[in-house]
């Protein structure tokens, strides 16, 4: 039976993905900061058929806590998989007013999960199996006026995942990069965005991509086309655009 650790397990997409895994009988390690909320998610997953659902403390801004998680996972037998849903996106105006917020965005959306996955990768490689799923964002495909700090963090994470995929493929471990467009979650509350999708739809896309061993997916798929067009806009023109 397979096991999954979900970083940032209280996020809407992580919850939807956890529910899917639970119905398949997976063992779940739900990692995050809100223990009470994690316990509620774990109870729900057990009711849905999870072989087990254990809560683990994880704070992307506190790497000192990572070794204990790695040690717990090392004790779990069988195929081990990981998915990182961690990230934070303050309004760009708030960051402009207080640049020190950048450090938290980078830690949550890039360096924290990357550090953890870097520590976890040898364990999966030693077993010669497993999947790592990293949640990036279409925001990382090109710096935009409205969220370029968050976009920069997700761009860095996507590049990291690309290199990790290259490394781990040699040892039988697959790495999937997921680039969602706007998703109807608390992070986008009140925002009006095109092609907005649901956490359940993103979770379904992830599940299919894991089974098919895809490398990079966009969710919803239309964002692959949209971002291709956006990347092709000449810089002199792009600088005058307000989106």
Give the topology, please.
Elements: E1 3-7, H1 12-23, E2 27-32, H2 35-47, E3 52-57, H3 66-74, E4 80-84, H4 92-97, H5 101-127, E5 131-135, H6 148-168, E6 174-180, H7 199-212, E7 216-219, H8 222-232, H9 235-238
Parallel strand pairs: 1-2, 1-4, 2-3, 4-5, 5-6, 6-7
Summed up:
With 243 residues, this protein is of the alpha/beta class. It has a single domain, classed as NAD(P)-binding Rossmann-like Domain (Rossmann fold, 3-Layer(aba) Sandwich), CATH 3.40.50. It is 48% helix and 16% strand.
Helix content: 40-55%
> How far apart are the termini?
46 Å
What portion of residues belong to β-strands? Answer: 15-25%
Count the domains. 1
What is the architecture at the second tier of CATH? 3-Layer(aba) Sandwich
Unreliable sequence segments: none
The total of helices stands at 9
Q: Main sheet, how many strands, which sense, barrel?
A: 7 strands, parallel
Helix/strand class: alpha/beta
| CATH fold label | Rossmann fold
Outline, from the CA principal axes?
globular
Helices and strands, in order, run as EHEHEHEHHEHEHEHH
Give the strand tally.
7
In what order do the strands lie side by side in the largest sheet?
Answer: 3-2-1-4-5-6-7
**What's the CATH first level?**
Alpha Beta
Give average pLDDT, whole number. 94
Specify Rg, calculated over alpha carbons: 18 Å
**CATH evolutionary superfamily:** NAD(P)-binding Rossmann-like Domain
Pfam family, one: adh_short
Keywords: Oxidoreductase
GO molecular function, one term: oxidoreductase activity
Family: Belongs to the short-chain dehydrogenases/reductases (SDR) family.
